[in-house]
Write a structure and sequence with these properties.
The protein is α+β, with helices and mostly antiparallel strands and 80 residues long.
Length: 80
């Protein structure tokens, strides 16, 4: 129940697509936090437009939650 409430609040604050992309990244990251997919692949798999994904990635990079290593390789750094 608690996690459902948190999910609902996050979707209200950040928006459905933002939360969906974060969930997608978390599910597709390896144990080290690396995601090896291009932005085009993520757009297709996560059903999100390129401009929306770019905006989300920029926000996550600004907050130092996501770091682009090179094209097709990203690193999630979840704050503790």
């Amino acid at each position: 129940m608690f996690l459902l409430l948190v999910d609902k609040i996050c979707k209200e604050i950040l928006g459905q697509k933002f939360v969906s992309v974060i969930e997608f990244l978390l599910k597709n990251a390896d144990k080290g936090g690396f995601i090896t997919l291009t932005q085009d692949e993520i757009c297709k798999l996560a059903d999100v437009s390129k401009p929306t994904l770019s905006k989300i990635f920029k926000t996550l990079e600004t907050k130092k939650i996501l770091k682009k290593i090179k094209n097709g390789v990203y690193k999630l750094s979840i704050p503790k």
